[in-house]
Amino acid sequence: MRIIVDRDRCEGHGVCETAAPDLFQIDDEGDLVFHLDGHDIPEAQWDAATNSVLTCPVAALKLEN
Questions:
Q1: Model pLDDT for residues 20-57, shown as the tens digit of each residue
Q2: Residues 41, 2 contacting (CB under 8 angstroms)
Q3: Would you say 58 and 13 are in contact if contact means Cβ atoms under 8 Å apart?
Q4: C-alpha to C-alpha distance for 9 and 42, rounded to whole angstroms
Q5: How much is the pLDDT for 6?
């Protein structure tokens, strides 16, 4: 499982960081840092990853299998 980030849609609300702090971070400039960009999500983090996708207020995250 991977997460695809639509950086054009992301507004830096930080909801994903709250849902999955090991995967996401909003940097000092308000930009999203996705720690596993281009890599598979470890199975132990699937629930947090799914929750981050479901709670993004602007639908900037998408799951890909």
A1: 999 999 999 999 999 998 899 999 999 999 999 999 99
A2: yes
A3: yes
A4: 25
A5: 96
**3 state SS of 58:** coil
pLDDT at residue 9, rounded to an integer: 96
DSSP state of 46: H
> Number of H helices and number of E strands within the chain?
2, 4
Per the confidence metrics, is the pTM higher than 0.70? yes
Answer yes or no: are the C-beta atoms of 51 and 15 closer than 8 Å.
no
SS3 of residue 50 by DSSP: helix
And the tokens for 34?
């996705």
Structure tokens at 43: 């199975």
The two tokens of residue 30 are 């308000």
Domains belonging to the chain, first-starting first, are: 2-64 (3.30.70.20)
